[in-house]
C-alpha cells in the first residue's frame, strides 16, 4: 500500500486525486492533506479519509477543526504546508496546490527524500533551477501530473533522451481560441471560465484563455526534461486527444492519446512505472472522434506564450517575474478589477521593468515574487 500526502486537496486536481485514491482503496492510503480556505470540503475529506495530518491556510480554521476532530493533527499556514509535504508516513507527495506558495514545501519535500507527483507548475516556473538541482542532488523523482508532461514522460519511456529532436506540446486553445484580439475587448470572467474541453480550477482556466498556461508548460517542460527552448514547440490541437508528443532524430513521433480526464495522468504518476485500471474513465473511441486537427500557434494573438518563451530563454529571475505578475493579474481579473486584455499588459509591463538576476536563491525568489505582486497591484 502506498501512503500519500496531498497538498491542495480541495482543488480541482486535489479532488480528482481523491477520486483515484477512492477507486483503489487496496493500493492507496491518504495520510496527510492540505487545503486552503474551503472548510466544507476539508471537513468532507476528513470524514471520508481520516488522514493523520491536516493543514489549512488560516489559524482560526485550524483551531475549529482541532476542536471538531480530536484524533487528527491540524496545522496551518506555510509551516503546515511544509509538514504536509514532508509527512513522515507518506511515500509520495502529490503537489496540487495553486501558485508559487508551493515552492518552499516542494524544496522541503525533496530534502526529506519524498517522491513528488507535481501538478503545481508555478513552482517549476518560478524556481525550476532550484527544484531540479535539489532533486538531482537528493536523487528524488519528480513525476509529472500536468497532462502534456505526463504524455511526454510516457512517450519517453525506454528512449534515450539524446535522440530527442523536439517536444511538441499540444494546446486546446482555451475559451477564446476563435476570437481575434479585437473581439476580446470586454469579454467577461464567465466567458473566460467557459473552457471547451477541460474542467479545471479558475486560475488555470484563465491561463488557458490567455495561453499563459501553455507558456508556463513550455518552461515546465524545459525543467522536467532538461531541453533548450528551441527544442520545445507548441501546436494548436482543438480536440485535446493527443496530450503531447516527442519527435526523435529519425523523424518518428511518439504521442500519448486519451480523453480529457486528469485522473489518468494523476493515476499514472501514482502507479508509475505500473498502470492500473481506470474503471470510471470513458475509453477513447477514435472512430467516434473521426478527425484530429493541428494548427500553428499565433504568438501575436496569444501574447503570453511569446512572453513565456522570452522569459524562459532569458532565464535567471525573469520566469519568477512572469509567474508572479501573471498570478497577480489573473487574481485581479477574477475579482473584476481589470479587463481580460489587461492581463497581457500587466505581465508585459512587469517583465519590461525587471533587470534579470542570474541564479537567484530562494530568498531572492521570494522577494522578487512578493515585490512583483505588489507592483502589479499598485498599477491597478
Ligand atoms: P484550484 O484552484 O482548483 O485548487 C487549488 C488548491 O490549492 C486548493 O486546494 C486551494 O485551497 C489550495 N490553495 C490555494 N492557495 C493556497 C494557499 N495560499 N495555501 C494553501 N493552500 C492553497 O487549482 P487546480 O487544482 O486547478 O490547480 C492546482 C495546480 O495544478 C496548479 O498549479 C495548476 O496549474 C495545476 N494543474 C491543474 C490542472 C487542472 O486540470 N485543474 C491541470 C494541470 C495542472 P482552497 O480551495 O481550500 O482554498
Ligand atoms: Mg496542462
From TrEMBL:
Ranges where the 1-deoxy-D-xylulose 5-phosphate reductoisomerase N-terminal domain occurs: 4-128
Catalytic activity: 2-C-methyl-D-erythritol 4-phosphate + NADP(+) = 1-deoxy-D-xylulose 5-phosphate + NADPH + H(+)
Domain DXP reductoisomerase C-terminal, first and last residues per copy: 257-374
UniProt keywords, alphabetically: Isomerase, Isoprene biosynthesis, Magnesium, Manganese, Metal-binding, NADP, Oxidoreductase
Domain 1-deoxy-D-xylulose 5-phosphate reductoisomerase C-terminal: 142-225
Enzyme class at the top of the EC tree: oxidoreductase
UniProt pathway: Isoprenoid biosynthesis; isopentenyl diphosphate biosynthesis via DXP pathway; isopentenyl diphosphate from 1-deoxy-D-xylulose 5-phosphate: step 1/6
Transmembrane portions of the chain: none
Enzyme Commission number(s): 1.1.1.267
InterPro entries in UniProt: DXP_reductoisomerase, DXP_reductoisomerase_C, DXP_reductoisomerase_N, DXPR_C, DXPR_C_sf, NAD(P)-bd_dom_sf
Residues that hold NADPH according to the record: 10-13, 36-38, 120, 122, 201
Residues binding Mn(2+), per UniProt: 146, 148, 217
Family that this chain belongs to: Belongs to the DXR family.
Known role: Catalyzes the NADPH-dependent rearrangement and reduction of 1-deoxy-D-xylulose-5-phosphate (DXP) to 2-C-methyl-D-erythritol 4-phosphate (MEP).
Protein name: 1-deoxy-D-xylulose 5-phosphate reductoisomerase
Native organism: Rossellomorea marisflavi
Amino acid at each position: 500500500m502506498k501512503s500519500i500526502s496531498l497538498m491542495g486537496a480541495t482543488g480541482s486536481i486535489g479532488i480528482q486525486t481523491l477520486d483515484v485514491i477512492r477507486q483503489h482503496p487496496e493500493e492507496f492510503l491518504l495520510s496527510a492533506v492540505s487545503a486552503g480556505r474551503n472548510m466544507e470540503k476539508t471537513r468532507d475529506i476528513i470524514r471520508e479519509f481520516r488522514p493523520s495530518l491536516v493543514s489549512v491556510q488560516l489559524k482560526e480554521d485550524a483551531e475549529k477543526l482541532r476542536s471538531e476532530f480530536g484524533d487528527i493533527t491540524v496545522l496551518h499556514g506555510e509551516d503546515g504546508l511544509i509538514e504536509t509535504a514532508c509527512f513522515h508516513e507518506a511515500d509520495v507527495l502529490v503537489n496540487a496546490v495553486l501558485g508559487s506558495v508551493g515552492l518552499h514545501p516542494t524544496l522541503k519535500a525533496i530534502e526529506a527524500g519524498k517522491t513528488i507527483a507535481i501538478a503545481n507548475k508555478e513552482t517549476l516556473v518560478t524556481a525550476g533551477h532550484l527544484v531540479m538541482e535539489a532533486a538531482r542532488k537528493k536523487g528524488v523523482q519528480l513525476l509529472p501530473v500536468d497532462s502534456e508532461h505526463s504524455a511526454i514522460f510516457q512517450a519517453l519511456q525506454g528512449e534515450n533522451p539524446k535522440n530527442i529532436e523536439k517536444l511538441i506540446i499540444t494546446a486546446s486553445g482555451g475559451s477564446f481560441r476563435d476570437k481575434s484580439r479585437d473581439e476580446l475587448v470586454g469579454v467577461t470572467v464567465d466567458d473566460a471560465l467557459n473552457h471547451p474541453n477541460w474542467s479545471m480550477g479558475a486560475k488555470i482556466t484563465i491561463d488557458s484563455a490567455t495561453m499563459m498556461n501553455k507558456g508556463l508548460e513550455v518552461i515546465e517542460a524545459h525543467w522536467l526534461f532538461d531541453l533548450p527552448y528551441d527544442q520545445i514547440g507548441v501546436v494548436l490541437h482543438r480536440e485535446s486527444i493527443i496530450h503531447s508528443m516527442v519527435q526523435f532524430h529519425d523523424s518518428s513521433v511518439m504521442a500519448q492519446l486519451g480523453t480529457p480526464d486528469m485522473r489518468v495522468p494523476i493515476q499514472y504518476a501514482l502507479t508509475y512505472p505500473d498502470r492500473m485500471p481506470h474503471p470510471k474513465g470513458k475509453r477513447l473511441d477514435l472512430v467516434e472522434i473521426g478527425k484530429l486537427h493541428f494548427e500553428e500557434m499565433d504568438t501575436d494573438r496569444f501574447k503570453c506564450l511569446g512572453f513565456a518563451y522570452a522569459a524562459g530563454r532569458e532565464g535567471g529571475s525573469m520566469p519568477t517575474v512572469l509567474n508572479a505578475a501573471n498570478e497577480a493579474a489573473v487574481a485581479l481579473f477574477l475579482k473584476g478589477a481589470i479587463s481580460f486584455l489587461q492581463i497581457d499588459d500587466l505581465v508585459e509591463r512587469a517583465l519590461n521593468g525587471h533587470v534579470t538576476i542570474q541564479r537567484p536563491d530562494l530568498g531572492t525568489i521570494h522577494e522578487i515574487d512578493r515585490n512583483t505582486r505588489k507592483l502589479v497591484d499598485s498599477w491597478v
